[in-house]
Design a protein that fits this description.
globular; about 240 residues; Rossmann fold; about 50% helix; alpha/beta; 8 helices; single chain; 7-stranded parallel sheet
Length: about 240
């Protein structure tokens, strides 16, 4: 990743933060996207700079097409290139089937799927020039389906098909793959989630943000892999 530039959406917190730091450790300069977590994003920038890499934070509401286009124009202006796009920004909302509103549906599909498409579209000219790579974030919910999370699961299933379609559309210049995390334990999650994850995973442990960041790092450098969905779930989907 030396001399390369990566853009990670939703990089201020949680898994996006871990991915941004891992790519910087691998040698990349990093564009750190955030929506409302500016202070957290600036902290990520500072940590990357301490590694001796360059980083800039960019705020953008990815539900707005004009904001996406502005984001990529700024990345082009600040870095002059883009080699890796990681679409990790997402929302995860519980909504009962009978109570799902149009707003809840639109928020999930706009953030988790529509924004991913238009980020890929915005990045494509730079990625074609650099023969770069896209890593999208799906979810095991997009494979298994969960009651109470239908908009989320539909959006993530859409990311899987979008990944496969874009892998053909952008080949041979750009590789496109996806990560489907599951049974990942995050600080602040309810403790009963971790207990349930351990019970369901054959490896009998939860995953960590570093497990996901390592998978992204692999896909960023896997020169003969495209159109694939790498499930990182400790065997949960088995």
């Amino acid at each position: 990743m030396d001399t390369k530039v990566a853009l990670v959406t939703g990089a201020g917190k949680r898994i996006g933060r871990a991915v941004a730091l891992r790519l910087a450790q691998d040698g990349a300069d990093v564009a750190v996207h955030y929506r409302s977590s500016e202070s957290e994003a600036q902290a990520v920038v500072a940590e990357i700079e301490r590694m001796g890499r360059r980083a800039v934070a960019f705020g953008a509401d990815l539900q707005q097409l004009h904001a996406i286009r502005d984001l990529f124009a700024k990345v082009q202006e600040k870095f002059g290139r883009l080699d890796v796009l990681v679409n990790s920004a997402a929302i995860f909302r519980h909504t009962k089937f009978e109570e799902t509103s149009e707003q809840a549906w639109d928020e999930s599909l706009d953030t988790n799927l529509k924004a991913v498409f238009f980020c890929c579209q915005g990045a494509a000219p730079m990625l074609r020039a650099s023969r770069g790579v896209i890593v999208n974030f799906a979810d095991i919910g997009g494979i298994m389906g969960w009651p109470g999370y239908i908009p989320h699961c539909v959006s993530k299933a859409g990311v899987i098909m979008l990944t496969r379609s874009l892998a053909k559309e952008l080949a041979p210049e750009v590789r496109v793959n996806a990560i489907a995390p599951g049974t990942i334990s995050m600080p602040g999650d309810p403790p009963e989630w971790e207990t349930d994850f351990i019970r369901r995973a054959p490896l009998r442990r939860t995953g960590t943000p570093d497990d996901i960041a390592g998978a992204v790092s692999y896909l960023a450098g896997a020169a003969f892999v495209t159109g694939q969905v790498l499930v990182v779930d400790g065997g949960r989907t088995l």
